[in-house]
Amino acid sequence: MTEEKGGSAQRTSLQGYWSSRMAFILAVTGSAVGLGNIWKFPYITGQNGGGAFVLVYLFCVVLVGMPVMMSEILLGRRGRRNPVATMALLGAEEGGSTHWRWIGSMGVLAGILILSYYSVIAGWSLAYIEKSLSGVFSGASSDEVSGIFNMFIGDWKMVAGAHTLFMFLTVFVVARGVERGLEQAVRFMVPALFLLLLALLGYSINTGHFGEGVSYLFTPNWHALTWGTVLIALGQAFFTLSIGMGAIMAYGAYLPEETSITGSAASVVVADTSIAILSALVIFPIVFANGLDSAEGAGLVFHTLPLAFGQMGGGVFFATIFFILLTFAAWTSAIGLMEPAVAWIVESYGRTRAQAAVIVGVLIWAIGLGSVLSFNVLADFKFLNRTIFENVDYLTSNIMLPLGGLLITFFAGWVMCRNSSSDELGGATSIYKIWRFLARWVAPIAILFVFLKAIGWLPEFSG
Ligand code: PHE
């Protein structure tokens, strides 16, 4: 045992490096931008009353999300291993205990659980490519569009088939490895998605209900907010940025030494947040223009957008492109969800990437059947008043990811010595000091506070 705290950096990655800073940013953006932005953000915003929820979410992204993301990248780059081994290594080096590896293990598990239902929803998107192409949405009424959706999710074999196909696509890319697999998948998708959402924004502005959508999203109605919904907003910040579970740590392990972590994290956060807000700005005017229920839940995007596409010129074309892009976005996120588990199996059990991807993929596929059935056969099978899908989502987004983030910032801010973290973040600049303040105080305390409030362990301030 040496007395010196903090290790030498400059370890080498076992699985290769990103070819450039841009490749890293694209990969992290590809992981961040996905169903979380376009499917989940609008529907949980609708379920939680709009304005105040959005504001809390934005606060969480900036004050908690940003420091957690920076911490994850810096730990990943310093450890240069899969999240379990990285935390064991850095734990021994900086904190005198390899038990820190449990942060990594929890992340591996969270990724597996999230992907189990994520793949089911991505399957919906996949199925909607075919539906859009067939022209069923052209001129369809709102009831017809709902009917198509309900008929589809009610048929468990169709949903299971789409889930199977999506898992197959994911395993295929992950098996091919860092350089060839992950990098190429993300290059065109995010800019294309952004442009298509801008075009849809044009449609929403013309619905005549755009103002209503904007005020729904940005006028805070504090009465609708409880500590339970604050926890959901916090969980969404983690989910949408792909943080708290080691995905970003795994990607950071392949990051060249000289790349700026702060700059990379900031670009990803800005891109991710703009796409989420843009998507809500597109969807809510359509909700109000057609008298739909903003709180209807997981089907929201699958009702609103096909309805809109069905009414516009070239709708078949745009709808098809949209669902292709959404599937792509989900695909590049799914890769990130699998990466911690796959890298862990490769590095600890000496398997090839392809073998590890198949093992993890089959496991995730099987767990996902629970979510497939949550929308049909087992729709009434509830535990704590939630379906299987809802329970897996709640447990991962609102508990495991924030807990992971709490431990990650605690480790980076309190356990890791100053020299090591400032080394990774480019010296003791003022940005470093802001990061350190957020990572030591704001993020962990905010997460803990919201947890305790949400489970009712802290009393209310006033009546
Ligand atoms: N951020 C992704 C999304 O918003 C989901 C995700 C979570 C991906 C965690 C990787 C890790 O869709």
What does this 3D model show about the protein?
It contains 19 helices and no strands. The protein has 463 residues and is mostly helical. It has one domain (9-454): Amino acid/polyamine transporter I (Up-down Bundle). Helix 14 (300-311) runs antiparallel to helix 15 and helix 16 (353-373) crosses helix 17. The longest helix is centred in the last third of the chain and has 35 residues, at 315-349. The protein is globular, with a radius of gyration of 22 Å. Mean pLDDT is 93; it is low at 1-6. The structure holds phenylalanine. The site of phenylalanine has 15 residues, from helix 1, helix 2, helix 11 and helix 15.
Helix/strand/pairing category: mainly alpha
Amino-to-carboxy terminus distance: 55 Å
The count of helical stretches stands at: 19
Number of strands: 0
CATH superfamily: Amino acid/polyamine transporter I
Please indicate the count of domains.
1
Instruction: Note the beta-strand portion.
Output: under 5%
- What's the rounded overall pLDDT mean? 93
CATH T-level fold name: Amino acid/polyamine transporter I
For the sheet with most strands, the description reads:
none
Would you state the CATH class? Mainly Alpha
What's the Cα radius of gyration? 22 Å
pLDDT below 50 for ≥5 consecutive residues: which ranges? 1-6
Net shape: globular
H/E element order: HHHHHHHHHHHHHHHHHHH
Per CATH, the architecture is: Up-down Bundle
Residue share in helices?
over 70%
